[in-house]
Amino acid sequence: MARIHPTAIIEDNVTLGEGTSVWDNVHIRHGASIGDECIVGEKTYIAYDVRVGNRVKINAMVYICAEVTIEDGVMISASTTFTNDRFPRATFPDLKSLRPSEPDEHTLKTLVREGSTIGSGCIIGNDLEIGRWAMVGMGSVVTKSVPDFHLVLGSPARSIGAVCKCGLLFHKFKDGDSGTYACECGLSYEIADRVVNEEELATKGTKDAKKEFELATV
Q1: What confidence score (pLDDT) does residue 76 get?
Q2: Does the reported pTM lie above 0.85?
């Protein structure tokens, strides 16, 4: 059963998973879906039809607009703002009527992949993807997709290194570097041209490719 603070506004057709907590002055619009064991911090706004996975932490004063999808295990820190329109206008060109707030052909999607972290005070652009287990440093402005396991910082945000599933920066990127790199927690990763894979997945990929080659040459 979800726990909902009495000051929260939960509109019709909202799905809240088992064990999810919604804190004070949260506003969740109609059609939104939030998975199990999530935390939605105070004064956060979640727009209509947003999809949030399981065990997601959304801190205070986060703005999540329509067409955002958040996978399992994501951390979204305080005062983060999502966007969904690159060239927004309040009105039509004649200035006589407001543009509707519902999604239309100008509304762009954003996908936040599993395990990733977005630091506090970030602005997330649209028509992009935050990769698996990636990390966006606090105060960053994300204008393009972030690869898996990358740490990005700044405005606009740029990749500076690779982060482990545990959250530590285990490698700072240099031009042309490649090889196997281990985090102090014990997990290892293969890096080639700034593409980061868990070592076991990279090894599996190599074996699969070798097997396919052998089958093709029989």
Answers
A1: 98
A2: yes
